[in-house]
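agent> Task received from the user: take the single chain below, predict its 3D structure, and emit structure tokens. No templates, no multimer pairing.
agent> Plan: (1) validate residues, (2) run structure prediction, (3) serialize to tokens, (4) report one or two observations.
agent> Step 1 OK, no nonstandard residues flagged.
tool_call: predict_structure(input=
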Amino acid sequence: MPTLTASSLVPSSFRDLPSVVWTIFAGTIVNRLGYLVTPFLVFFLAARGVTGAETSYVLGAGNLLGPAVGGILADRIGRRPTMLIGLIGASAAQGALFLAPGVWTMAAAALLISAAGSTVSPAAYALLADAVDSERRRRAYALFGWGVNIGTAVAGVLGGYLAARGYWLLFVVDAGSMLAYALVVAVRLKDPKGARTTDNQVGEPQEKKDGIGYGVVFRDRLALLLLPLFGVQLFVYSLTEVALPLAVHDSGLSPAVYGAMAAVNAILVVALQPFATARLSKFPQLAVQGAGGTLIAGGVALTGLADGVVGYTVSVVVWSLGEVVVAGIAAGVVANLAPAHARGRYQGAFSWTWGLARFAALTLGVAMYTTLGPSALWWTALVAGTAAAVATAALTARVNARTAHELAA
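)
tool_result: status=success, residues=409
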């Protein structure tokens, strides 16, 4: 009988990743296990007189501000300090929100939660890029995303249980998980020596030329082509969080059906992603991104044909498979485009694109659904998502040439 070891339990696609990546993976699971307040924030603030629309705008603004600041700080003061600022700041904001005496103070605290929390991702993504070479970055980011999905899947069940027993429990667990992750960052994470050597010996003159802002990203024509294309695909994917609940409601189904659909998505992603990453890493990554983006667009559009549990399940399975296929690719491509001294800002721009896409889904997506009708939204998702996926795949040669040039340099 073969001996069961710890390494044998690790999916083969992730076994050669360094300890820094695994530390961030473990910390992310801990943090996402406590991701409880934001999903229930609409209900909490509604009970205190804040409408759902106002909550969406507050959270959306925070998710645009946080990544922009986080990317600059990650390059300016370091990855670890930026992660600590974001985690501790968001944890403090949790307590401020729960104790806030009025609407404006609650809005300010909610803004701080989303802004501080979203400063963490650019720094974490940059630290992952520092820790691995370009060939392994897609797998490192896929592992990071896998941790997010594992933690979120458990948090969805835990959140409903705790909310029924008092919202204060959500705040305690959420803030506690952030502080636990901050402790992991402070104790376990170190700046990779290779990244410091590259920045100091090679990148310093260029760093002075590029400055500390986002000019280095705006001058990168290839990045300016890719980021909007990724943004369109992320907008289509974000409709699964925003428009799918509306469609389920309009079909006369209970909220429990949407909860079941979320469970289907979580199970598929957690179960299939490691194996898909191993199999698909051998193919051109932007071509894989294009195929996965097309699956997501098609699956989201299938929502418009669903009128019962079976139909919604089919649509969720299709776009979940697309999510599995694209895991880690976009962040990995952005990391490979970035100069070593600007990895934080490139990841900040990518995270900002993510935040903008979610904000657009919350506002523009919902407006299209309610004013132009569901069909208009689903057709838009299909056409825009597929077009963006094809255009992304068409940039494969340019990205490969750029990556080869960077490796040679």
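agent> Step 4: summary for the user.
The first helix runs from residue 19 to 33.
agent> Done.
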